[in-house]
Amino acid sequence: LCVCFILTILSFPGQEQEERELELQSPTQIDISRNLSFLARFLELQWKMLTLKSEHTEHKYSSSPVDWITMDSSIAYWLHPSSGAQIQLLGNVVIWYAASTSMLLYIVLFLWYLLRRQRKIYDIPEGCWRSWALAGAFCLGGWAVNYLPFFLMEKTLFLYHYLPALTFQILLLPIVLQHLHDCVLRTEALKQILSALLVAGLSSVFLVFRTFSPLTYGQPALSAAELQELRWRDSWDILVKRQQK
């Protein structure tokens, strides 16, 4: 069963805003009355996505690939007709930024090792270097294949297009942490600091998940003040219904 939600504009005042809120409250569904197998329905959906023509007007929730790295945009999928409960596509900020930071740190360390090796200076054992390079080839390669082609596309793009590339960034995160612990940090004190930071980071991941879970699952409904507190970035389209004010 495939349910396609229509992404609609929420930031217009007056009657137009009410109409778009109503659209969010009534998501459009694919006709499932036809007796098709899973494979046939899957292939049909893929074909429709491939042959869909790009619109000339920019969508409210569309974003550029540059915005995805820092999660500058969100997507509203559903809005409750009375309580203001809503479902948004928002990633975990801690995981999102930690993944981007790990990729940047990997690139810096890789270039540093490469330049030093050109001068016959070997900071890490050969086996460790090979593992480091292989991990980068897989994770950075997967990230690049799933991200860079979007710069060449003229179709309307959304934040969810970045999720496959983000997966490879997340895979790189523990590799970088393990490398820092085993090959970069020389003293036990520095390793303990890294461990403490890791515990703090995991706690932050859980805290952010609990904080934004009402926007992920649509419950419980939040007040206008609580919704405003969750708008950590002005570019996030978290809707505060006028009647809540």
The overall pLDDT, averaged over residues, is 83
- The SSE string, one letter per element, is HHHEEHHHHH
Q: Roughly how many Å is the radius of gyration?
A: 22 Å
Estimate percent helicity: 55-70%
Secondary-structure-based class equals: mainly alpha
Number of helices: 8
- The number of E-state strands comes to 2
Residue share in β-strands: under 5%
Could you say which overall geometry the principal axes of the C-alpha atoms support?
A: globular
The low-confidence parts are: 1-16
The rounded distance between the terminal residues' Cα atoms is: 37 Å
Sequence-ordered SSE layout with sheet pairings:
Blueprint (H helix, E strand, L loop, with lengths): L13 H12 L12 H14 L13 H5 L5 E5 L6 E4 L3 H26 L7 H22 L15 H22 L3 H30 L6 H7 L15
Antiparallel strand pairs: 1-2
